Amino acid sequence: MTLSSDTSVPAASSLDFRSIDFRGRHLSLAELRAAVPRAKHQTMADAESKVLDIIADVRNRGFAALTDLARKFDGVDQSHPRVPAEALAEALAGIDPEVRAALEESIKRARQFAERQRPANVEVPLADGAAVSQNWIPVGRVGLYVPGGLAPLASSVIMNVVPAVAAGVESIALASPPQKEWGGLPHPTILAAAALLGIDEVYAIGGAQAIGSFAYGVPGSQDGLPIEPVDVVTGPGNIFVATAKRLVKGVVGIDSEAGTTEIAILADSTAKPALVAADLISQAEHDPKAASVLVTDSGDLADAVVDELRRQAAATRHSARVLEALSGPQSGVVLVDDLEQGIAVCNAYAAEHLEIMTADAAAVAARIRNAGAIFVGDYSPVSLGDYCAGSNHVLPTSGTAAFSSGLNVTTFLRAVQVINYDRAALEEVSGHIVSLAGAEDLPGHGDAVRIRFA
After folding, report:
1. Best exposed site among 64, 164, 327, 397 by fewest CB in 10 Å?
2. Is 352 a known active-site residue?
3. What pTM was computed for the model?
């Protein structure tokens, strides 16, 4: 293993899984965050410039811009991106029975988990006639994004829709990229999943233009109805989707920056190299920019995993894509002195997906503070979370798991506080209000209370 700075696309048979050695070094949190494998910042800066142009174009030209962008990025011609109701029905009728059964099982488990996430309303009586409540109220309308470029992520339909429905959202729109081979519509499995969940407002729009359309809305045209703006945008995507969500945050709410996928695995000498390698590959096959990181205190395990990566990557269907992802600056092995340093590295990295493959994995997992989702032991791979665990796979990336949560029911809820005091209860604290208003040089605040007792 060698530390590599070469970001060129590897040949189909090559693997350059770089190594970063932290052994014998005492690094601060800032130093750890700077040293762990990440995509180059210039890539994100380039994406932001392009995304700003796309969003501006959609805001200025509406459906005309969406038509041009669909032709440019997806190679399709469309007059209006709304998916016809009959196309949704046909997709559901034509779905493979085994795939439908898998979708239904995933929906069932996701619902069971989501329905128990909704927090309870609370009312606190503070004195006679004085009560403060906190009520959880769903947003009115949401826009859900489902990737469909390199892989048609029908499972992301479930992950977006189920918690929104459990939260009580009444208006749900979904967007997924148009596919040339499917006549300019999203992939039929995505459409079938939407139909299975009762979503009938579906748009064939991809990338940053989908996020911009949801955030700002698109006025109606002679070819169809408008796209009404939403209150919250959610869903995973590539760097352009994640960047677009960051740029519209504040105009709308977002779940998190769920960008290009990443996996970190904290493993010791007890881990099975074949399993570690298989799980690193499972995320690398998503995208050439996907991140796969191994953190270990065992040099022997690291060498064995690299050997397994070479063997398994050569045999997998998307070998070239996997090898590019594994050989990029965002991937590699981090060698640490011991488990303590390994935990510190994982908390600094704040992975979207973090697998724990160590002795007493559950105890180690309990010490992790920063991760989108934590997968414990040999039989909880990320693939389980992607499809049938019951958890949600729309998770924060690029270190944002240090302050963001994965998609859940509360993403679609707002905590609204309700204050209900009667005359006697207000009078009891009126002197305190007047005193504090005076201390802050805001006498009108005090006068607003005094006038009630004049």
Report:
1. 64
2. yes
3. 0.89
